[in-house]
């Protein structure tokens, strides 16, 4: 799984443990999602291209760098919304585009219900955000939408992944790197990740 990256950072592991706890209230849950998203984005963007930039410090001239690629952030509605602020804190210039998908509870297949992407791509790199990579249906469908849009550099940034979802992504889009805080054991009969953390959307928005 050379394109699957599970974080080994102690801060990520610490925050993920608190996120999993069933006693964590929605306000704290949202804070942890935002914080983990920022840490995961930091790891996922280590290979972004840069260009030289000459500036003046208070003491001398120096050549530094600036990002050379326009970045797009694509949260999968609704659970992915909670990850956006964590990314924006690192990259306030990133564009945010929304794609709405829900999982049919009978077929476990994704159904697209919202897409407002412009006709031509406005970014060169897209980070797909979704806390949970469960069956992989929503993630693979989102990648397909972005590829049709014309984006060629795509990464998935999540919090928890199941082996089934990872395998589905790798089969459909082996060129898309997957960045996760943890890889869990399996999916249950309802398509939930075990041990997981429950429904990330419900826990963020207090609708469980």
Short description:
Helices cover 33% and strands 29% of the residues. The chain has 208 residues and is of the alpha/beta class.
List the helices and strands and how they pair.
Layout: E1 4-6, H1 10-20, H2 26-44, E2 50-56, E3 61-67, E4 71-77, H3 81-90, E5 95-96, E6 99-103, E7 110-115, E8 125-129, E9 132-133, H4 137-149, E10 153-157, E11 160-161, H5 163-172, E12 178-180, E13 182-183, E14 186-187, E15 193-194, H6 200-205
Parallel strand pairs: 1-12, 4-5, 4-6, 4-8, 8-10, 9-11, 10-12, 11-13
Antiparallel strand pairs: 2-3, 6-7, 14-15
Helix pairs in contact: 1-2, 2-3
Top keywords for this entry?
208 residues, alpha/beta, Rossmann fold, eight-stranded mixed sheet, three-stranded parallel sheet, 6 helices, 29% strand
Description of the structure:
By secondary structure, the chain is α/β, with parallel strands linked by helices. It is built from six helices and 15 strands. Helix 1 (10-20) runs antiparallel to helix 2 (26-44) and helix 2 (26-44) crosses helix 3 (81-90). The chain is globular and about 60 Å long. The chain starts with a strand and ends with a helix.
